[in-house]
Structures are given as C-alpha cells and as structure tokens.
Design goal:
Radius of gyration: 17 Å
Bound molecules: NADPH dihydro-nicotinamide-adenine-dinucleotide phosphate
Helix content: 40-55%
Number of strands: 7
Strand content: 5-15%
Order of helices and strands: EHEHEHEHEHHEHHHE
Number of helices: 9
CATH superfamily: NAD(P)-binding Rossmann-like Domain
Structural class: alpha/beta
Shape: globular
CATH topology: Rossmann fold
CATH class: Alpha Beta
Distance between the termini: 40 Å
Strand order of the largest sheet: 3-2-1-4-5-6-7
C-alpha cells in the first residue's frame, strides 16, 4: 500500500508550513507518502500543524525557523538532513505582506517583505541546492503571486519580491538543470487564508470582481499544483510559472 504512493521514500521541506497554503501543501505531499519537514516562526502554530500532519501516518519534522535569517535557513536544512538524510522537494512558501501606498511605505515595510519573500527564497534555495546536487535530483517549487506578474497597488514591496522570485527561479532552473534539479514557480491569485483575510473587505471585494471564476481559491487548489510539480509526471517542466488564480491574470 505505502509503496504505491507517488512520493513514498521522498523528503519534502515546506517553509511556512504551519498554516494556510503551506500547511495544505505539506498535507498533500504527506498524503502522497513523503516525509515532511515544516517550518514557521510561531512554535505553537507549528506544533499544531505537526500533530495534524503526523495523523496522516508519515514522519514529520517541525523546525522553528525564520525564513529571512541565514542561520535559521542553514539550521533548518541541517535538521532535515540529520533526520531524513536527503531532501527531494523544497517548497519556498513562507511569505508576508506589509501593504502600503508607495509614497507612504516605510523602509522597514520594504526590508521585511523583501527579506522574507525574496532573500528567504535565495537562502533556502542555495542551501538545499547543495544537497540536491549531491543527490543529482530534486524539485524546487517557489510560491510567487499574481502580484509578481501584474503588480498590485499598495504592494510595491510584495510585487517586487514576488517578481524577483520568478527571475530567481528561471536563473536557478538554468543553473541546476545539469543536476536534474527542476525549479518552478506556482503563482497564486486570491486564496482564502489568513493572509487574504488581512486585506480590507472592500479591497478584497474589488479584487474578486476581477476574477472571472468569481470566487477565492482554496489553499488546497494551490497544493494540488505543487503536488503535481513534485511528482514524476512533471519531469520535463523547469523554469516555468504556473498561475493558479481563477483567471485573474492570463
Ligand atoms: P499565511 O499568512 O496564511 O501563512 C504564512 C505562513 O508562512 C505561515 O505558516 C507563517 O507562519 C509562515 N511565515 C511567515 N513569515 C515567515 C518567516 N519569516 N519565516 C518562516 N515562516 C514564515 O499566508 P498564505 O498561506 O496565504 O501564503 C503562503 C504563500 O503564498 C506566501 O508566500 C504568499 O505570499 C503566497 N500567496 C498567497 C496568496 C493569498 O491570497 N493567500 C496570494 C498569492 C501568493 P508564522 O507566522 O508562524 O511564521
């Protein structure tokens, strides 16, 4: 039974796996038989997520780590290797927003968002790529955003970071192809999580009006695409951005 699972024997590391899209991704990868490593800043939330994931039957490692800090990224990767010996799938999902109009945006709003959403992806990708190069295989899936492709008013920091993730992904895909490491982006639109709940209701409604499918997406609908990119069926896909947004951006 276990052997029949698509990701049996593989190890997946999901940053920001304690809630929202990251938890949904960890859940589906665990359902497919992967051992999962999840990270986040808040230990209470992370423990609750780890318990939920353990209930699916596979091994789970939860590590409190801030995606924006190099020491934490290195410690997270070392912990994953120590426990499981390898890393087959990295999902760079941890992300934050600090929305403000451009002319009112504080330096700190810029720095925090770019550090977490872009520098964090660089730090984790660099650390995990070394592991995957030795394995001569791996999948790296970076969670960007519709905002990174089309921009979003009130989010110059977030849009810049998420566009940066797309550029990083393409460059890394070219560099790492030699080692059979595939690097792709999944770019969600408006997805029903704590992050989307923090958008003022009026602004959220206005955004929804621009979504042809006229509803928010579910975290699971992003996770399904990540699951596909992590699996054997996606072996010839690299450097791509897959948009999952109900048609908001085409
Ligand atoms: P949530 O705010 O619901 O969850 C974010 C997750 O990331 C939490 O697990 C959080 O845990 C973790 N996290 C945040 N900052 C850090 C950090 N510095 N280090 C480690 N973990 C961190 O967000 P979503 O699930 O909605 O978003 C997930 C990803 O999807 C993000 O990259 C986001 O930008 C992207 N996205 C989301 C969209 C949406 O509409 N929801 C749309 C487009 C993209 P903790 O707080 O405990 O650290």
């Amino acid at each position: 039974m276990t052997d029949a699972k698509a990701l049996a024997g593989r190890v997946a590391l999901v940053t920001g796996g304690s809630r929202g899209i990251g938890l949904a991704i960890a859940r589906l990868l665990a359902e497919d038989g992967a051992s999962v490593v999840v990270s986040g800043r808040d230990s209470g939330r992370l423990d609750a997520a780890a318990k939920e994931l353990e209930a699916l039957g596979g091994p789970v490692l939860a590590v409190v780590a801030d995606a924006a800090k190099r020491e934490d990224a290195d410690r997270l990767v070392a912990a994953a290797r120590e426990r499981f010996g390898r890393i087959d799938v990295l999902v760079n999902n941890a992300g934050i927003t600090r929305d403000q109009l451009l002319v009112r945006m504080k330096d700190d709003d810029w720095d925090q968002v770019v550090d977490t959403n872009l520098r964090g992806v660089f730090l984790m990708t660099r650390a995990v790529a070394k592991v995957m190069m030795r394995q001569k295989s791996g999948r790296i899936i970076n969670i960007s955003s519709t905002a990174g492709a089309m921009g979003n008013a009130g989010q110059v920091n977030y849009s810049a970071a998420k566009a940066g993730v797309i550029g990083l992904t393409k460059a890394a895909a070219r560099e790492l192809a030699h080692w059979n490491i595939l690097v792709n982006v999944v770019a969600p639109g408006l997805i029903d999580t704590d992050m989307a709940a923090s958008i003022p209701a009026e602004a959220r409604e206005a955004l929804l009006q621009q979504v042809p499918l006229r509803r928010m997406g579910a975290a699971r609908e992003i996770a399904e695409v990540v699951r596909f990119l992590a699996g054997d069926g996606a072996a010839y896909i690299t450097g791509q951005s897959i948009h999952v947004n109900g048609g908001l951006y085409m």
